[in-house]
Amino acid sequence: MTAAARHTRCKAMKPLGVVRIECSYPVLALALREILKDEAHVYEGRKPRGAEDPASVITYSNRRDVDSVVRRIRTFIPEAAVLVFASHPDTQLVRNALRAGASGFLHAGMRPEQIVRAVRLVSEGKKTVPKELLDVLVAEEGAEPDLAALTPRQREILELVVEGLSNVEIGKRLFLTESTVKQHLHAAYKLLNVQNRTQAAKLFREA
Fold this sequence. Notes:
Blueprint: H1 3-12, E1 18-22, H2 26-36, E2 41-44, E3 56-60, H3 66-76, E4 81-86, H4 91-100, E5 104-107, H5 112-123, H6 131-142, H7 152-162, H8 167-174, H9 178-192, H10 197-206
Parallel strand pairs: 1-2, 1-3, 3-4, 4-5
């Protein structure tokens, strides 16, 4: 690339670089493009021929698929920051997105300048979540787990987890299917604010 070409390219670059939008709702995608057009080079879907790799990807997702969506983007565009966009604030969706590796969360109730600021923050390597959702997440993280909220069956299963039994072994002991054991465990994880059986067993053992 010649010096002149490099100069032209640098001059043409916008503050937020290239932003890719993945959204199956045309009105939402159009709104995001309009909001970001002065600050970034924005495109949807396939990368245009000759375009730079995106610095950020904004993807519309929901609770059911957010893990796989975020991980797919991070696998194929590892250098890009991922922002999950939703129609409304959703703390569980935020939690799932961040655990999957997203850098931030946006929703349709945010003002345009808030969305631009969020994209700027993730482009600088920072994480960003709307304050009202961040306050809830912080409060939940600091909340004491409620062991009393566990059902008798959940407590019974956790006692066997502490003993080191697998889900199959627990099912045989209690005459339950493995799927039923998993359902009880996942419900218990939410009540205890933990992510897996190891954390749940440790918490239950120390209670």
